[in-house]
C-alpha cells in the first residue's frame, strides 16, 4: 500500500469509502507529505493532520451546496482544489459546560498535530481576536487554521448572561484516551495507525456544535450585539469557512460572477498587497430554537461558506505569503452576518 493509499484508508475509517474516493478525486494532496514516515507502527503527525483536514473539508462542502458544486466544477475543468485554510470561531468565556475556554479547546489538539499559532490578529470591530495556526512540518502545503475568539466581556451584561446559558450545556468531544494520545503525539510526533484511527474521529467531532439547542430569546439577544456570537450559538465550532488557494483570483471571481454564484461584492486586499481574498455568501441552514413556550421551532439562519484566496510571493524570502490580515478577515466574517 502506498502512503497516499494509507492516507485515504485512514480517512475512510472515519468517513466512508465513497467519501474518501471523492476527496481523492477533488482535493490536492501535496507530494511533500511523502517525505515523512508512513508505517503502521510509527505514523508521522503530518499524515494525521492531513487526514483531519480532508475530513473537515468534506464536512463543510457537504453542508454548503454551492461549495460542493464549485469543487466538482473545478474537477470537471481538470483541477483539484488547493485547501489553503479553514476557520473556526470560539468564545473566550468561562461556563459550566465541559468544553475548555476559547481557543484552548483547539490548541490542545492542533499543537500535537504540529500546528503553532504564528501570529495574532486583532479583530477589533468584531470584539474578537484571531490566531493563525500553521503546520510547521509542511507550512506551505498543509492547510492552516484561522482560530478566532469572541470576547463577551466587551459586550453588555444581558449578552454575557445569554452566552453563559448557551455554553453551559457544552460537552467535551475528547475523552481521556484521546487526550493521552495527543499528549504522547506532542512528545514523539508519531503514533501507530491503530491510534490514529482511534484519534481521528474524535478530532473530527471536535469541529462541531458541542452545546444544546439555544433559546430563541438568547439567540436574538446575541444577534442584536454580535452576528458572530449568534452564529456560534447555532453552529458552534464548525468550520465557518474553508478556502481554495487559486492562482488568479480576478479570473476566478469573473468566472463565478458569470455563473451567477453568490459572490461577495468586493475583493479584500491585505496591507502588504500580497494576500487577496473573497468568498461566497454564507448558505442558509435550518436550525431549531426553543420558543417562549418551550417548543422547538425551525428557523433559517446563516451557515458556512467557501472562500477564495490568492497568495503572492514575499520578495523578502522568495516564498508565498502565508499570513492573514485583520482587515481582510473582518471583511470576510461579514459573510455570515444576517438577521433572523
UniProtKB/TrEMBL annotation:
Q: Does the keyword Iron apply?
A: yes
Q: Does the keyword Iron apply?
A: yes
Fetch the Gene3D superfamilies from UniProt.
3.10.180.50
The protein's UniProt keywords, in alphabetical order, are: Dioxygenase, Iron, Oxidoreductase
- As recorded in UniProt, its EC number(s) are 1.13.11.93
- What molecular functions are annotated in GO for this chain? dioxygenase activity
Q: Which residues cross the membrane?
A: none
- Stretches of the chain forming a coiled coil according to its record: none
Tell me, what's a Pfam family for it?
HGLS
State the family it belongs to: Belongs to the 2-oxoadipate dioxygenase/decarboxylase family.
Q: What is this protein called?
A: 2-oxoadipate dioxygenase/decarboxylase
Amino acid at each position: 500500500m502506498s502512503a497516499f493509499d494509507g492516507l485515504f484508508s485512514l480517512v475512510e475509517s472515519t468517513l466512508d469509502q465513497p467519501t474518501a474516493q471523492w476527496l481523492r478525486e477533488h482535493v490536492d494532496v501535496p507530494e511533500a507529505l511523502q517525505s515523512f514516515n508512513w508505517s503502521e507502527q510509527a505514523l508521522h503527525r503530518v499524515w494525521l493532520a492531513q487526514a483531519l483536514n480532508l475530513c473537515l473539508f468534506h464536512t463543510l462542502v457537504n453542508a454548503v451546496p454551492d461549495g460542493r458544486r464549485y469543487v466538482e466544477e473545478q474537477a470537471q475543468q481538470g483541477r483539484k482544489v488547493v485547501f489553503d485554510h479553514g476557520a473556526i470561531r470560539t468564545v473566550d468565556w468561562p461556563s459550566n459546560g465541559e468544553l475548555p475556554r476559547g481557543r484552548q479547546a483547539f490548541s490542545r489538539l492542533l499543537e500535537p498535530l504540529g500546528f503553532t499559532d504564528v501570529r495574532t490578529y486583532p479583530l477589533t470591530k468584531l470584539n474578537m481576536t484571531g490566531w493563525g495556526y500553521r503546520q510547521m512540518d509542511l507550512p506551505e502545503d498543509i492547510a492552516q487554521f484561522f482560530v478566532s475568539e469572541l470576547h463577551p466581556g466587551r459586550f453588555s451584561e444581558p449578552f454575557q448572561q445569554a452566552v453563559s446559558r448557551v455554553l453551559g450545556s457544552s460537552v467535551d468531544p475528547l475523552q481521556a484516551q484521546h487526550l493521552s494520545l495527543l499528549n504522547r503525539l506532542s512528545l514523539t510526533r508519531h503514533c501507530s495507525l491503530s491510534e490514529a484511527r482511534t484519534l481521528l474521529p474524535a478530532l473530527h467531532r471536535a469541529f462541531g456544535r458541542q452545546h444544546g439547542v439555544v433559546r430563541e430569546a438568547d439567540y436574538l439577544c446575541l444577534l442584536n450585539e454580535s452576528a458572530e456570537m449568534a452564529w456560534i450559538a447555532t453552529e458552534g465550532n464548525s468550520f465557518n469557512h474553508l478556502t481554495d488557494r487559486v492562482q488568479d483570483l480576478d479570473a476566478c471571481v469573473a468566472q463565478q460572477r458569470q455563473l451567477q454564484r453568490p459572490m461577495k461584492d468586493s475583493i479584500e486586499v491585505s496591507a502588504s498587497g500580497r494576500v487577496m481574498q473573497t468568498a461566497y455568501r454564507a448558505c442558509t441552514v435550518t436550525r431549531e430554537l426553543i420558543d417562549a413556550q418551550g417548543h422547538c421551532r425551525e428557523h433559517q439562519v446563516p451557515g458556512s461558506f467557501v472562500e477564495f484566496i490568492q497568495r503572492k510571493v514575499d520578495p523578502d524570502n522568495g516564498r508565498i505569503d502565508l499570513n492573514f490580515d485583520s482587515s481582510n478577515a473582518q471583511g470576510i466574517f461579514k459573510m455570515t452576518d444576517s438577521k433572523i
